[in-house]
Amino acid sequence: MQIKFNKTLSGMVEKKIYCLVVLLLGFSMVTQGQMYQTEEGYAEFIGYTPLFSFKGSSNSLRGSVNLADSTVNFELPIITLDTGNNKRNRDMMKLINVEKYPLAKFEGKIITPFRRDTPVVQEVKIKGIFTVHGVSQVLTIPGTMHFTGNGLEITAEWSQKLTTYDIDPPSVLFYSMKDEQDIQVKAILQPAEASN
Fold first, then answer.
1. How many CB atoms are closer than 10 A to CB 94?
2. Cβ-count burial 8-20 (b if 16+ within 10 Å, e if not)
3. Is 47 exposed, middle or buried (0-12, 13-18, 19+ CB in 10 A)?
4. Are residues 2 and 79 both part of a single domain?
């Protein structure tokens, strides 16, 4: 009688352990399926003077979106920004002190609902900390997210003042550059397991 009880108890414990392992593996797979990454997103800024504007762009935006906890992390090596003019590029790198501050970073969280079960473009807001030139500011950035056949596509646009980040607007061809710049990012992120 005692032996039978122990076998029954042992069988129940084994079933519970098996169920726990299956649940943990299932949760792990779901969590992995909610992480999306990119190494080649697009970022640009547009600078303005009284007479003209110019653009700097890069295809080296790196980052991730974790839909499990709504976290967003992106960084851009500033040295990869190209304005189409070598002298302007050099002046920009010197102005930002790219050797000391090589990255622009954003770390935040999606603060509006996002549905995974539809390919419709959805407007989202992301709140987080944007850091450039060693200065960090809290921003709430509007953007869009949606699934395509290529992955999770995101876009975001906002304006910022250079002086907010302790950057003095430079002079371009004798014209002072305006303090405010427009920034845009676009990226298609792949499931994390597919990018390894």
1. 11
2. eeeeeeeeeeeee
3. buried
4. no
Q: Provide the domain limits for residue 8.
A: 1-32
| Residue the block writes with tokens 């851009």 | 76
pTM: 0.78
CA-nearest of 74, 6, 1 to 38 is: 74
Q: What share of the chain is helix, strand, coil (3-state, %, to 5)?
A: 25, 50, 25
Q: 25 and 14 in one domain?
A: yes
Place of tokens 């996002």: 114
Give the other-Cβ count within 10 Å of 147's Cβ. 17
Confidence grade of residue 160 (pLDDT, cut at 50, 70, 90): very high
Q: What residues pair up with 104 in beta bridges, in sequence order? A: 76
In the chain, the amino acid numbered 42 is Y
Cβ pair 147, 173 in contact under 8 A: no
- Which token pair is 186? 């676009």
Cβ 151 vs Cβ 190: under 8 Å: yes
